[in-house]
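@channel anyone free to eyeball this complex?
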Amino acid sequence: MDFYKNEPSVLLAVDCVIFGFNGDSLDILLFKRAIEPEINKWSLPGGFVQAEESPEVAAARVLKKLTGLGNIYVEESAVFGDPKRESHRRVVSITYYALIDVHKYQHVITDDYEARWFPLNDCPPLIFDHEEMIRVAKGRLRSKAALYPILFELLPEKFTLPQIATLYEKTYDIVLDRRNFNRKLLGSGLLIKLKEKDKTGSRRGAYYFKLDKKVYKEKIMSFLRYLPSWNIDSE
Amino acid sequence: MDFYKNEPSVLLAVDCVIFGFNGDSLDILLFKRAIEPEINKWSLPGGFVQAEESPEVAAARVLKKLTGLGNIYVEESAVFGDPKRESHRRVVSITYYALIDVHKYQHVITDDYEARWFPLNDCPPLIFDHEEMIRVAKGRLRSKAALYPILFELLPEKFTLPQIATLYEKTYDIVLDRRNFNRKLLGSGLLIKLKEKDKTGSRRGAYYFKLDKKVYKEKIMSFLRYLPSWNIDSE
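replying in thread with the prediction:
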């Protein structure tokens, strides 16, 4: 018996905002759309949620297919459900953002689509409401990264303090007091100093660090015991 | 032309976690479900997204109908889309949380449903995945309230410092150092001290405060310029 027989149905899609950090700019991965309508235009990668899939599973499928990467950091961003967001059919899209290490990203080559990294602040025009999806995902990333050290997902295995600072600067569009930032960072217990130095940036060089994965997991998982920080957004 | 004709469709619902603060416990408003299946069981208030509605508009409609309140604080929480979350038909639910001042809440009486406030930690068994929806909404509320002073939405026009502290304690399941908390709070610029005292709690009484709505709006709206606070979740 169908109790809900008078309710309207919709198509459900997922769209993914894939962030990467190339050492200098925060980028997102865009695709030339392979299906009608709006075929061949730049868009976020996405797909329809299939009958046996939850939306999270659909997002993971899309990400795996397009980046070659499984087991990456993914968070729900927001739902886009304006009845007129696509003109010919009602499609409600659930958006996700993913953080990947661009060094691990495998460029999956097929005849179906073309993929390219673009700086977040310099993307081509996108279809439908995809530009708004990126704007919202950036806001979610900023909020989440203010409470949890998730930006490390964007860094390679070994990284330097200036690299982390640049990543935070690009994410928040700010200029950091590097000394103060480094002090907080080293005090966080998240980093393990390596013996090796990166000499590409300066003559003196910058020590490489790696993430203490145990501490990181605790910080990522620990829901709470955090206190509201009254001044955090007035700095 | 229907480009998406082979894609499966779903029913889309909204469910709302309505938080209120009675001065002592953080509560949520539950309803006895008025429709089949699972009629008469306790559940979150919800409804189906109609053809001409976005999900946000559907949530506002449900909230207005059930609380009598328009223009309340609402945030998207998460999507619940497991293919088997309802047994007889696929329904994907978008959940929202709302913060209301219980003093403004109007108990809307109809023959259709019964509504009651329950302490967050002492709810009756709920239908489907509604208990998980509450758990997730509580987490979202905690994250958001750590960055923005949104918990004030739960307080009446006039409130005391001990009231605010209790509200934060109940939200985060912590015991605050009241002195330190009051100092941070008074330093936030959010509060205007009134001349009147609340004498119900102690002989000395506690001054009433009201929110500086201008500062509040700035803090609520100001997306960013906040810096990651490394130690925030290790306290």
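from a first look: Helices of chain B lie at 55-67, 130-147, 161-172, 178-187, 213-221.
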